[in-house]
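Subject line: Sequence and fold of a protein, written as structure tokens
Body of memo: The sequence and its backbone structure tokens, given next.
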Amino acid sequence: MKCCKLECIPGLIIAFLLPCGAQGASLIFETTSPYHHIRVLDENGVRILCFDDGQETRMMVNNPLAGHFEYTEYFHMAWLWNTNITSVLMIGLGGGSAQRSFEHYYPDVKIDSVEIDSSVVRVARAYFRYEESDRQKIHVEDGRLFLRRSTGSYDLLILDAYVSGRYGSSIPQHLATKEFFELARNHLTTNGVLAYNVIGTLTSWRAEIVGALYRTLKSVFPEVYLFPAQTSLNVVLVATKAGIPAQVSTLRPRAQLLTQTKRVTLPGFTSRLERMQVYPPASTATSPVLTDDYAPVEGLAAAAQQNPSGK
């Protein structure tokens, strides 16, 4: 689960991720896998999972449901379009912030997670309170390959998978194309929802990537909404199979009902709705539709690196 804080753009040098721990943070564990240099640090009561030089997950040691990055809460917005979520597939584990949250707040929901790196799974178990159960399952596999082999359907599919590339943290290309989204859509139930975390902004830094993901999702799903985080450079895109456009004003009563009936008990759920944007980002007009034959994810990241002001 990748996050980039607002403070991490110093001048002309882009730090794609929040630097991994301040001086004085305690190193708890360290290893190198085929995919990442993995470190676990403790700093002022917060446990931090680092991939390479950036923070992946944060968790309060004394309260595992607290200390997480804000953007993970926008995954819960899916309830606004599907009020009967019972099955969730998450591609990307990290320290399991979203997995813990869904398991805690929705007792009737079963969560399958797919993580390509077995070392990440071991670290999540040992240091971030990730526990498998009848409701919480883990599959060590590539996310797209898992979907291709699967015969199951899900009410919600969450994508939060990143790899280290030449220009910093990058979306795996094969998890960002029209063909992949068509595969994902075919594994969603009638009112299914797809939520996708993108490191970037709507108007400046990495706006090209956000625009390309928006345009690509819109080529497969009838409606796509944007939830830009306030405290980090993350945008969560929510794509729905429901073809009727929604507005914040029309969703407020539904959000209030979900919380009043305790179907959703996530603190701050209704206030998160106010971040929703229904219009395409400006970069959509010049961003490509990503396909298996043409998915220049790293090229878009390179453009952002060369032009950090976004102008």
Summary: DSSP finds eight helices and 13 strands in the chain.
